[in-house]
């Protein structure tokens, strides 16, 4: 076997909590690595945290002012000469299908640092990312390492409900983020794709704290249950509406925006059942899409939902936004959605989908009048379309 195959076999056989230790041993033996570190992005996507240093010694690294952060943002391997040492640090993105987990840093003797070796290490970083996602089923180590402070119970429930924060495929790229990351309670997003279609859902449960989180959990799982039965989005909404009404008898409801994309054609069906908004950027034009407003889920017994349709074109960018974004108010009393939201979408047009939500939520934090950010969700989808044979 070659060394890359040996490393892959060793990491796959490692205990869930011992991935980095195993990789460190393997890279030292196979490549002469002098040091190996893993930094994971925190929940708010503001810093990178070391996996294996004690908390008292673990100074987070800025995503904006560190070489690791720059590699994370660019999603390209970077390197830096080590001062007073004949060695080079290689910063390698740890990313799984668009989901940016963190940065693997490998220090090599300068004489051994070649482009071919960096290519092999890039593959190793990809392998590590996949193994972390599998290992998280059996250990809290990686989720614990990503926290700069304790999550509220409601936030814990919401983060566990999410599919990921980014996803890429041949036809599309998705990025999404929730704020306040450590205290979110009612907002959520979900997606699923197969060879023929992509389904997106943005939900916002009414109320605060655990009540809102429990409500959203019920709605998201009801929608997933219907989706996995192969049911269309209108019936997904109807069945989730009935599940919520049966539980709460109309006293609580969930605002929902459901979209289904035909990957081959770009045809989109949408059900607008509440407050989340849909915006589209086509070229330099940005506008909110006018949709038929229907009842939020769970408000009345046996509500019926209809699907509207529209067409996306290659190069289109769609943004799904909760009311915590567009209703945020400036010190002068102007809602963010009146003018500034369109400007923010324009100003981020050159960013990849995975980084757009963080950029818009950063601008929103500077705009709003209150010190505490209400639940705010941004989901960005870039549509590439399917290449014709």
UniProtKB/TrEMBL annotation:
Limits of the PPM-type phosphatase domain: 169-383
Gene3D superfamilies, alphabetized: PPM-type phosphatase domain (3.60.40.10)
Enzyme Commission number, as recorded: 3.1.3.16
GO molecular function, one term: protein serine/threonine phosphatase activity
Region named Disordered: 56-83
Domain of life of the source: Bacteria
Alphabetized Pfam families for the sequence: SpoIIE
Keywords associated with the record: Hydrolase
InterPro entries reported for this sequence: Bact_Sigma-Reg, PPM-type-like_dom_sf, PPM-type_phosphatase-like_dom
UniProt biased composition (Basic and acidic residues): 65-83
Record's protein name: PP2C family protein-serine/threonine phosphatase
């Amino acid at each position: 076997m070659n060394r890359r195959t040996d490393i892959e076999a060793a990491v796959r056989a490692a205990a869930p909590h011992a991935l980095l230790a195993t990789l460190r041993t393997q890279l030292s033996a196979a490549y002469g690595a002098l040091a190996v570190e893993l930094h994971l992005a925190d929940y708010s996507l503001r810093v990178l945290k070391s996996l294996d240093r004690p908390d008292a010694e673990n100074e987070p690294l800025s995503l904006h002012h560190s070489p690791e952060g720059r590699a994370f943002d660019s999603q390209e391997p970077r390197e830096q000469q080590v001062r007073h040492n004949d060695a080079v640090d290689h910063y390698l993105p740890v990313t799984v299908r668009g989901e940016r987990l963190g940065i693997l840093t490998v220090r090599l003797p300068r004489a051994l640092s070649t482009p071919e070796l960096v290519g092999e290490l890039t593959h190793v970083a990809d392998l590590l990312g996949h193994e972390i996602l599998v290992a998280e089923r059996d250990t809290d180590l990686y989720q614990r390492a990503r926290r700069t402070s304790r999550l509220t119970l409601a936030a814990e429930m919401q983060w566990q409900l999410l599919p990921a924060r980014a996803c890429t495929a041949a036809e599309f790229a998705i990025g999404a983020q929730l704020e306040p990351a450590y205290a979110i309670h009612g907002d959520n997003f979900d997606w699923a794709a197969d060879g023929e279609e992509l389904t997106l859902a943005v939900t916002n449960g009414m109320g605060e704290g655990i009540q809102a989180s429990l409500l959203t959990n019920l709605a998201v799982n009801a929608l997933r249950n219907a989706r996995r039965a192969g049911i269309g989005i209108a019936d997904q909404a109807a069945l989730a509406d009935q599940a919520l009404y049966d539980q709460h008898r109309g006293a609580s409801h969930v605002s929902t925006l459901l979209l289904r994309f035909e990957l081959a054609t770009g045809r989109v069906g949408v059900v607008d059942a509440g407050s989340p908004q849909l915006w589209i950027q086509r070229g330099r034009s940005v506008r909110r899409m006018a949709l038929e407003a229907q009842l939020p889920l769970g408000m009345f017994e046996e509500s019926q939902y209809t699907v509207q349709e529209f067409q996306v074109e290659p190069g289109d960018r769609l943004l799904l936004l909760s009311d915590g974004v567009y209703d945020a108010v400036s010190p002068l009393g102007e809602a963010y959605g009146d003018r500034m939201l369109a400007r923010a979408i324009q100003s981020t047009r050159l960013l990849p989908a995975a980084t757009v939500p963080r950029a818009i939520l950063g601008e929103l934090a500077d705009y709003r009048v209150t010190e505490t950010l209400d639940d705010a969700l941004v989901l960005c989808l870039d549509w590439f379309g399917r290449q014709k044979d």
